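User: Show me a protein chain along with its predicted structure.
Assistant: Here is one chain, sequence first, then structure tokens.
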Amino acid sequence: MPVPRLAAIPAPELRTRAAAFLERHWPHSEKPIDIEHIVDVRLGIEIVPTQQLSAVTGTEGFITADGRRIHIDEQIHQAKTRYTYLFMLAHEVAHLVLHQPLLATAGYVTMTEWKRFHDGLPEEDRQRFEYEASVFAALILIPSALQGGLADLAIEKSRCARRTRGVNEELNRGTVSKPRAFVFDDNPEMRSAMAETLEFHGFEVIAFPRGLLCPRCRAPTGGACADVLLTDVSMPGVTGLELVVHQAMVGCGVPLENMGLISATWRQTERSRIEALGCRTFPKPFAADELEQWLSDCRDRIDPHRVLCSAFEKTARSQGVKPVSSSGD
């Protein structure tokens, strides 16, 4: 039997179905969302650590066509306090919620059967299949996503740059405090290159040699520690994806569209997950004009009345950037 084509799900419907999912399976609205509990207890889906899953299939997880098991790469499962694991669970549940008729037709069980099914989808359907699941996962994991219109943001990003036009002029006149950027990269040369580019464009820059999972900033007016976050993806310890998903889940004041991630080895599934959050992705090495345009758009999105946390002001560097972190590195 031929696999049916995948019809696109409009952004408002994605948001509606995500809200209905949470209302049914997490009705008390406690934060953060315990997606592992929802999968294991509420839905009764078995979570199966699977050796070599990523190496064989190119993905960290998949849900079986009958919806009874979610296979997770064993290494990801062993580090299940980290956010890649949580995002993968939410992503696979999304396939069950959004694409169940397609899964039922496919009927696969093993990871080789899943790979054959996935590779056999038309390119357009495959990209939609993964992108919609990533958007749904972000909507159910991130507290502010349903109210903030994340699905619209992820699918129609062009609207974002028009939200607060004129802020650049206010920044240039000195009526808004200097914009602040956090940079995360374990490579000193790349970290310095990103920091110098940001400083050249008028940002106060604080650079970190590794990813850090920060608590929600408690600035006086509910603001943030920074206006822009730029991070490498492949770092020891906390990866860039884990960093931005964590920050979004705890309600970080940096807008998701002002978070950028850089990688020399993007995989389509990985890039799709990040862009579903509304974040920007860049190749490594990055193209200067592309990064500069994004920074200009970021400045346009800065709230003129925002108040940045003062904890980092004394550590900022006006020339050259030394790696600093909350742990004193």
